Amino acid sequence: MTNDDATAQNVVFVVMDTVRKDHLSVYGYDKPTTPGLERFAEDATVFEQAVAPAPWTLPVHASLFTGMYPSEHGASQENPYLEGATTLAETLSAAGYDTSCYSSNAWITPYTHLTDGFDDQDNFFEVMPGDFLSGPMAKAWKMMNDNEKLRTVADKLVSLGNVAHEYLASGEGADSKTPQVIDQTIEFIDNSDGPYFSFINLMDAHLPYHPPKEYRQQFAPNVDSTKVCQNSKEFNCGARDISDKEWDAIRGLYDAEIRHIDDQLQRLFSWMQENDEWDDTMVVICADHGELHDEHNLYGHEFCIYDPLINVPLMVKHPELDADVSDQQVELIDLYHTVLDHAGVSGSRSTRPLDEARSILNADYRSFAEDVPGDGECAFVEYYRPVVELKQLEEKAKRANITLDKDSRFYSRMRSARRPDAKYIRNERIADEFYHLDEDPDELHNARGEESEEEVELEAALSDFEESVGGEWKEVSDDDVLGDMNDDAKDRLQDLGYID
What we know:
Layout: E1 11-16, H1 35-40, E2 45-51, H2 57-66, H3 70-73, H4 88-94, E3 98-103, E4 120-123, H5 136-146, H6 151-168, H7 178-191, E5 196-202, H8 213-219, H9 232-236, H10 244-274, E6 282-286, E7 292-293, E8 299-300, H11 307-310, E9 311-317, E10 324-331, H12 334-343, E11 379-383, H13 387-399, E12 414-419, E13 422-427, E14 433-435, H14 453-468, H15 487-496
Helix pairs in contact: 5-6, 5-15, 6-13, 7-10, 8-10
């Protein structure tokens, strides 16, 4: 347990993976999914306009841990690891923090380097333990993924992994490791001697949805979770139809998963309150991205950057923040600077030092001294080609004798400039899009080409952003790197029979 002098510096950072804002009762949803967060909101600022920098886990967490946009830190499925960046955990650890990371997300592992800097980390991913996703095997995978000649080998491994995950995650409660994550977080806080930074990722609301019986009965009575469509790629490629009744069942299961997260967070927070760890500790709760349930005829969180994916829940409890609702737009990358500001750490060892104008604790938040794209009024989102999801999509389509259009959103990289009133989306292989969010919050009418003032402003802001981060998208490296592969990685590939 921490000493009194250090308590005010503590940080508990929670990511509710794949939780969309409009399914939380604390944000006005008409089903009681988050009674615990409603109580939490009595001590916190609730942000209505928080924007994630990408629509999926890896690049968002890399941005949270570096304060960089995806094209700056480079972590994507095209390049599935964070390289050359000092993480928030590394900076805080160097400043004397006890740091921990507990998760059941397969992307938050030593393999991707997202756990760099955490003194204690554990991954509850059910298919492969975190330590297996590091070392020689991770290096071998990197070499295969970066080299066109070896990409087919990597694809085969992805296919095998997909099959294994579908099989192992098909049972009731199979993907919920949240109670263990909470238990380990409590133990870490209780044993901490200095200020602590505890990061957790909770995966219940990520497909597949197999909620505990208690919550399934409340939100999806008489629904057999093994009978509804739990593979988004089957639907997205056109191999599987989903009726309105089945969508209702899917959404009920999703709500039940959220209710389980809420219950477990309340357990953590109650323990903190009972053990004098609450009043002066900053607690951040957000989602890394949301989820689509037939909006835009899509299922899951791939192939678009519409608001149900990137306008995420964010709640922050801090002694200097009012318990209030804020409609100011916030970028999740700014949480990096907010934590540094709260900890009183300049970030001198960080790749990205503290920028007080990006700390939500600062009275002049988003008032930048220098010009930034969009004059600080825009949030920017980036989406690179989803290699793993594409492989799954192609496999499902092939089995159904469906040919996917290569000039479609499935293969398109995307970028967006967003304000609360409007959004411009640049697409790589399909036409650009523009939406008046204040008039069309569901993004149903593409007003691109009408040349409104908002469209011109946001397209210009996006162009400025693209220039600031290095221009257009870069292709994945096609260098022959076998000569640079270390002996351990070569030996592992030889053991697997992939190279002679």
